[in-house]
Design a protein that fits this description.
141 residues, mainly alpha, rod-shaped, 3 helices
């Protein structure tokens, strides 16, 4: 048997060397797993951020569309209200025009017409300009 070659249990240096190799390997494996997990977490977080940004953009588009629909509905309601007001004014003016020729000869009828005109203005059917124009027509000015 040669000298220096022992059989059986390793010596102190061999045990320390083996322990260092095992510890180094374990550290390297643990570090690799740690980096792998951190990478997966970063990718998941980036995916969530991208998804949230996309949802936010979609919500903004929905809000813009809703605002446009609300504006269109408001414009339609305003147009309908204006049409109803115009129709009421036209009806009042037609009624007044039909009554005007028959009532013109009597002085008390002029007063009645002015009162009726003032009532229409008070109800909001006639604007100030329309009231002034009809009053001038009744008075013959």
């Amino acid at each position: 048997m040669r000298r220096g070659m022992r059989r059986g249990r390793p010596g102190l240096v061999g045990t320390m060397a083996r322990t260092a190799v095992v510890a180094g390997t374990a550290t390297a494996v643990a570090g690799g797993m740690s980096r792998h997990q951190a990478g997966k977490q970063q990718a998941a977080a980036a995916g969530q951020e991208a998804e949230m940004a996309q949802e936010s953009a979609q919500q903004q588009q929905i809000d813009q569309m809703q605002a446009q629909l609300d504006q269109a509905a408001a414009e339609k309601a305003a147009a309908e209200q204006q049409a109803a007001t115009d129709a009421a004014v036209a009806a009042a003016l037609a009624q007044q025009a039909a009554a005007a020729p028959a009532a013109a000869p009597a002085g008390t009828d002029t007063v009645a017409q002015l009162k009726e005109l003032a009532d229409l203005k008070a109800q909001g059917v006639l604007t100030d300009e329309e009231f002034a124009a009809q009053k001038a027509k009744i008075l013959g000015s």
